[in-house]
Amino acid sequence: MTKDRSFSAVMARKPEIMKSSVGIDYDVFESGSIAFDYERMMKETGYTLQEIEEIQKETSVGNTPLFELRNITKLARKYAAPGKGARIFLKDEASNPSGSFKARRAATAVYHAQKLGYKGVISATSGNYGAAVASQAAMRGLKCIIVQECYDSKGMGQPEIIEKARACEAYGAEVVQLSVGPELFYSFLLLLEDTGFFNASLYTPFGIAGVETLGYELSMEFREKEGRDPDAVVITNAGGGNLTGTARGLIKAGALDTKIIGASVSLTGLHMASDEQFNKKSFTTGHTGFGIPFATWPDRSDVPRSAARPLRYLDRYVTVNQGSVFYMTELLAQVEGLERGPAGNTALAAAFAIAQEMDEDQIVVVQETEYTGAGKHINPQLTFAKENGIKVLIGNPADEVPGENIILPENPGKISIMDLDVNKTKKSYIKNCIKNTDVKKATKEDVEFMMADAKTTEAFVLETLEELGVKVETEDK
Amino acid sequence: MNAIKGDWVRIHKIILKVGERAPNIPEDTQKVPLEMWDKGFLLNESANIGDEVEIETYIGRKITGELIEVNPFWDHDFGKAVPELLYIGRQARELLEEGEKHD
User: Fold this and answer.
1) Which residues contact A404 (CB under 8 A, 6 or more apart)?
2) pLDDT, tens digit, 9 for 90 and up, residues A320-350
3) Residues A265 and A355 in one domain
4) How many angstroms separate the CA of residue A245 from the nearest CA in chain B?
5) CA distance A5 to chain B (A)
6) Inter-chain touch A326–B85, beta carbons under 8 Å
């Protein structure tokens, strides 16, 4: 019996394909309304932090070096008010096998796939996660397929994505490359169905729990080094997993006062699913094109319920322009002697500005770096931008228009951040909860869930529901 | 004849034609097909560029598509000179040498 392979038929089989490829029955965590039991999902399908440390140790993941960026701190202080300018630290996640923090996420997912007896793993990613899954699969002797959105309709691809494809192949994976479009998910489902492989999604509880060790490690290292937890951690935010996992790890360590700050590259105005605009952006991850939609609706991911829920944890969300991130990448090499990939330095560019708001004796941490190489480097990425008609200018980053120009700050003092209105994001999230579940009346449980999921007050949730014309069920129904 | 059985090749395939694409995507993307590229060992006895062929991928899957390249290789690099970046290191070093005086 051959199954119908048409787009609509395959999409309709999504629930059964998901269930058999992730090994999680998500239905048991559902309330039937908006709410689902997030903590129970994390607990029952994940691993304890200690178990994950053991799993990651098996493949030499984690325990990456922590650097104090003394020269960059010194530069930030030149532009700060007297007494201001926090010490900036950097967790060198590029030291993981496969060259990024994604090894932490992949380590648990691939371990779990092996434990359940899957012969191979599949992941849909154009980012560092592909190489991470491929590398972990190589270590554990599993087969690996990576599905990438790679080229526009002219067959032109971002050098950054092409390098990631090369890295996956280097680890023995098959790389399926696709042109622009969200129907990548259709091809992904077909591959899962055809092969019976494990869906090593970025958004399962295993993947997110894998990042918890990063937050935990940070807290332990700072207590040992400085006798206290860092005051703020700045996290490059795209799908929300890096932020969620790190924050959960910090909480597990008891670092409850550490501020969690998300940072994304601003790509305002560019449409992510547009064939023509695909190569007008100069960042393929860590940008607002992922960061905002995933924050306002985490369950758009490739599993029924995403374990990455950034609004639950973030205290502040800032954006930086593309030029400032390229600038920081060059600066990190020039004055700190660390040549790393651009996308991972998004949070560093933000931290440079945030440090100037903080006191001199405070500590701000950038919790990741990524590897650099051909394609995935400021030079080829800026060359590619120019070849796609983007102007590279030196001036005021505030004037940058994504898709038209990239503005490098004329001096480090010009690096600035834009605060996103987090309440607006939370409102959009609540709106999406209603829209996507089509619930006419919210339950009391729903209200509590949305309060936790958006880290907000009851009054805020009730007020937003009222604006949307959604009633709340009273207890004595 | 461009390739013989066992050669490492790259293929191309249309996954969704124009008109078959998801309804909620931007107009410019609707106007083009969803395409796929993959690599593997040629299973046909021989083939020319443009032929419909079958391959075995590196992990052992058998798939079909149009033969587009024999012995495909990566040619991404470190790009061209980007003189716009050259001020960054020199300026930062000068600033650091000035010391920590506030301006």
Assistant:
1) A390, A391
2) 999 999 999 999 999 999 999 998 899 999 9
3) yes
4) 31
5) 11
6) yes
3-class DSSP state of A442: strand
Q: In terms of DSSP H, where are the helices of chain B? A: 27-30, 87-97
pLDDT in tens, A55-92: 999 999 999 999 999 999 999 999 999 999 999 999 99
| Nearest residue to A304 (alpha-carbon basis) of A203, A449, A211 | A203
Q: Which of B28, B68, B71 to mutate to test the interface with A (most CBs of A within 10 A)?
A: B28
Q: What is the pLDDT of residue A271?
A: 81
Residue A322 and residue A394 in one domain: yes
Give the integer Cα–Cα distance in Å for A348 and A241: 18
In this complex, the residue of A77, A120, A178 whose CB is nearest that of residue B34 is: A178
Contacts (Cβ under 8 Å, ≥6 apart) of A325: A265, A283, A342, A343, A345, A346, A348, A349
Say yes or no: A285 and A331 in one domain: yes
Instruction: Give the contacts of A17 (CB within 8 A, at least 6 positions apart).
Output: A189, A192, A193
Query: In chain A, which residue's Cα lies nearest the Cα of B58?
Result: A174
* Minimum distance, in Å, between the CA of residue A82 and any CA atom of chain B: 8
Token match 């996954």: residue?
Answer: B15
**CATH number, position A219:** 3.40.50.1100
* Complex ipTM: 0.94
Q: Which of B29, B59, B81 sits opposite A144 (nearest CB)?
A: B59
| A92: three-class secondary structure by DSSP | coil
Closest CA to A122 of A53, A198, A180, A184: A198
Q: Are residues A335 and A426 in the same domain?
A: no
- Do A181 and B29 lie within an 8 Å CB cutoff? yes
Q: Which residues contact A347 (CB under 8 A, 6 or more apart)?
A: A234, A235, A236, A263, A366, A367, A368
Q: pTM for the complete prediction? A: 0.95
Q: Are A275 and A152 contacting, i.e. CB atoms less than 8 angstroms apart? A: yes
Low-confidence ranges of chain B (pLDDT < 50): 103
Identify the CA nearest to A286 among candidates A359, A235, A230.
Answer: A235
Domain extent, residue A472, equals 27-51+421-477
Q: How close, in Å, is residue B31 to chain A by CA atoms?
A: 9
Domains of chain B (ranges, CATH numbers): 3-75 (2.30.30)
CA distance A132 to A160: 15
Contact between chains at A408 and B21 (C-beta distance less than 8 A): no
Residue A100 tokens read as: 């990024």
- From A419, A435, A456, give the residue that closes a domain: A419
Same domain for A319 and A461, yes or no, is: no
